[in-house]
Design brief:
13 helices, 396 residues, 2 domains, alpha+beta
Length: 396
């Protein structure tokens, strides 16, 4: 009698079972305890931010200008993602204070530490969760927040009849520099052209003046009624204007009138105009980087510094989750138990102190007392240093 081969044993593999094998029972327990206060904190801080930062102002504008309720609600929903992004670091601080304070008050932390678990091992779940939240915050800030902020601003401006074009409609100024070799062999950047347009309608520049210093010993002043970019020739077509040729001693060499004249000037002034009047909160890091490349070509040092600062701040901000998580967990490990009200109050104090530091570093960065890199990362680095100090003291 032939035997029937037995079927191979089927294993019921649960999703993310690999994660459960990596995390210990203590890690899973602490993480589960953190989740409910975390969700509560995100909701509470988001509502608080929306109420203070958007609702009161929208109610005033709705009353004053008669905005419909549906529009107010739509704008409010579009403004909410920004406050959710701000609420995530605050929520992890609140959740850590609540969870570790309860564990300490119930003597669970004492039992764990007496069995040989160090304070550093106890806060490891917080570090892992905070890093995950930092990644989520970064993605949310890049993919959702800028677009939502921009759309809410467009809707509000349309409702208030403050329609702003998607481009800079007047006073387009662009500086072009070139590298010149000096007698001592060094190379310096000197102004080659100064481009100014009084107006821009989305297609053509109007009321143009171009000062051209690119030819040594000879300068040109080009004045024209309008100009348009010619993509086929990769040049500008100027219409109805004059070219003044000026010698080195300041005397006029020649005056040329034209109906149409093509000049080889970079496309950058058009790109600068089409970037529009977006606020930094309405641009992602990639968009800010594109804008930075453009203003760097124009040599606007103050705008370059400001844009660099905003990029560094956007990159550094998600790591606030790690800072707040460590501070909250370390403060929460103290023997004295605190309730929701006390944890919320401590969270607000820590948040207030941290954002005062951000404002101070922003001021120092904008006035070039600190470099954009240092000004953008100083609050995070300072916060990590404070968290590390608190953690070392708690471990003793």
């Amino acid at each position: 009698m032939s035997s029937v081969p037995s079927k191979p044993e089927q294993r019921n593999v649960q999703p993310f079972s690999w994660l459960a094998s990596v995390l210990s029972m203590m890690d899973r327990y602490i993480t589960q305890e953190l989740l409910m206060p975390l969700l509560f904190g995100i909701g509470a801080f988001s509502m608080l931010g929306v109420t203070i930062g958007a609702v009161f102002d929208l109610i005033r504008q709705a009353t004053e200008f008669g905005l419909p309720f549906s529009l107010v609600l739509q704008i409010l929903l579009l403004k909410t993602p920004e406050f959710i992004a701000f609420a995530i670091p605050m929520a992890i601080l609140f959740a850590c204070l609540m969870t570790y304070s309860r564990l300490s008050g119930d003597s669970e932390l004492i039992a764990l530490r007496s069995s040989g678990v160090s304070i550093y091992r106890l806060v490891l779940p917080v570090v892992m969760l905070s890093l995950l939240l930092a990644v989520i915050t970064f993605g949310f800030n890049e993919a959702v927040v800028p677009a939502a902020n921009y759309q809410s601003e467009v809707l509000l401006n349309q409702a208030l009849k403050r329609n702003k074009p998607d481009f800079r409609d007047r006073d387009i100024v662009y500086q072009e520099f070139q590298s010149v070799k000096q007698p001592d062999g060094d190379r310096d950047k000197v102004l080659a052209r100064l481009f100014y347009a009084k107006q821009f309608d989305g297609e053509r520049m109007k009321g143009l003046t171009v000062l051209d210093f690119s030819q040594q010993g000879l300068s040109q002043i080009v004045a024209a009624e309008t100009a348009a970019w010619n993509p086929g020739e990769n040049a500008w077509d100027f219409f109805n204007g004059q070219i003044y040729v000026v010698a080195a001693d300041g005397s006029y060499r020649n005056i040329i009138k034209f109906e149409q004249q093509q000049l080889q000037i970079p496309r950058a002034p058009l790109d600068l105009a089409k970037k529009g009047r977006r606020d930094f909160r309405e641009m992602s890091i990639l968009e800010l980087q594109d804008y930075l490349n453009l203003v760097q070509q124009g040599g606007d040092r103050q705008e370059v510094n400001k844009t660099n600062l905003r990029i560094q701040q956007k990159i550094a901000f998600p790591f606030v989750c790690v800072v707040f998580g460590l501070i909250g967990a370390t403060i929460g490990t103290r023997p004295k138990r605190t309730g929701k009200g006390t944890s919320f109050a401590i969270s607000l104090l820590v948040i207030f102190a941290y954002y005062v530091l951000i404002i101070l570093c922003d001021y120092l960065g904008r006035f070039e007392i600190l470099t954009p890199l240092l000004a953008g990362w100083a609050p995070t680095l300072f916060g990590l240093a404070v968290a590390g100090l608190l953690l070392v003291r708690a471990s003793r």
